[in-house]
Protein: Spermidine/putrescine transport system ATP-binding protein
Organism: Inquilinus ginsengisoli
Amino acid sequence: MTGTAIDVVDVTKVFDGGQDGAVKALDGVSVEIRDNEFFTLLGPSGCGKTTLLRMIAGFEEPTSGHILLHGRPIDGLPPHKRPVNTVFQSYALFPHMSVRENIRFGLEMKGVERARADARVAEMIALVKLGGMENRKPSQLSGGQQQRVALARALASEPQVLLLDEPLSALDLKLRKEMQIELKRLQTETGITFIFVTHDQEEALTMSDRIAVMSQGEILQIGGPREIYEQPTRRFVAHFIGETNFFDGALATGLGCADGATLAVRPERIQLSAPPGPGGLAGTVETVVYVGTDTTYHVRLAEGGALITARLQNRPGAQQSFQPGDGVVVSIPAGAGHTLAD
């Protein structure tokens, strides 16, 4: 049975906001993070995800509550006494040191014997695929290569947990996607628990075993990527994870929802057809956006005037295309929507 690596128990963090008064960054957060999993804290800026990461690292202490590492409290322990390492957004490499020297630095600080440290450095260089670049300085590396050095340095001391604070945000789109796969590979190969902070939904869905969606200092939902995307429990989660159409009031009731409930439907689940269609909701296409693999249609519904989004794949045999001004019938297949409690 998989054990628990990090156990956050009813943690609250309040900062002194000066003249603005106290600021509650975390409000009674509890979460268990398992051994050997890639766990992501996902949410918008200011939701508390980085504060929680910093408390696990030891850079901040809880106002109340406790944090345990493999069942042992780590409250009050300084960062260097905790068997965790952090990879920051800025990488924080030493510019005057080579790749090899940067990776060896933490081992030297811990007094690791030279031959053992050299062997570990060589192992890390191979793990992050930087062979042949051992003697280069950070200024001679690309952004992705610098990030690999930062990862290798953090992994070299064999931490029980690796904390990653938005380490991909400074990379361009193509490199960011490549590094998403690399990070997951590294986590799988090392077997170390990774706790990853991001505001990027695609990053979270691509890499994570489980995701905690946060808002205003609280965790709203925890689950695997498919569960979070397909079965959101809160309106905020459905809205934050990808695009979502919300059907409220009379529309929701007409689509089979109980009074007061909201139906959330992803754009790719909506079907469009030319009128007269076999039931559904009448609407008019307002804009059409071609994005290569898909075409996105924004449709204004005749009843209530809501603007909804439908996304159709561009493939042979796909649904017919429409132009702005075309009348359409919007259909939602049975089981395509998910009812939200709030």
Q: What stands out?
A: The radius of gyration is 24 Å. The chain has a mean pLDDT of 90. Residues 173-190 form the longest helix (18 residues).
